[in-house]
Known about the structure:
Blueprint: H1 10-16, H2 27-43, E1 48-54, E2 67-74, H3 80-89, E3 93-96, E4 105-112, E5 115-127, H4 132-142, H5 144-161, H6 165-186
Parallel strand pairs: 2-5
Antiparallel strand pairs: 1-2, 3-4, 4-5
Amino acid sequence: MKKTLSEMSLEELWRLFPIKLSSYNPEWKEWYAHEESLIIKIIGKENIQRINHIGSTSVEGLISKPTIDILIEIQKNTDTKKLTASMKNSGYIFDPQPKNPPPHMMFMKGYTENGFEEKVFHIHIRYSGDWNELYFRDYLKKHTETARQYETLKIKLKEKFEHNRDAYTAAKTEFILKITFLAKSEFAGRYTPRALQIK
């Protein structure tokens, strides 16, 4: 009898869900747009301040893990218990994130006991903020050479850490922080919270 995902060790999960990199897929934009519409219906537009497609799949032409990352900034008065229940009832896996910004929540979809489904999503839930991921994304979109450097780094790290997701992520941190610093200088104040703005 197969173990459920919750019964697997971290090492077993890393084996089942290795780091995979894919050439840019134009359909990722469509996957994001469909998922955004679905999530708005699940959570309720009244609870959302802003939604953004983040991560490498949001940068046209960039090699990426084929995972659609979505950042949802919710209203301070959102009932997070109700939000969690609604997302879980809609097929998302709840992944508490105590080290991440409040309300410390992420949801995932596309992970099964047999491995990845075709479409994989990470839904990051936060309150409004001037988030680094938005600036990093915009910098890569504008600066092609930097995007290529990031691509080269990811390919190198994938070969080294294919079955260690935490090490892969940690090894990218220095580059990401350096570029985010440049991005926040270039695009200063671009993502200062604005009420009820849905992108």
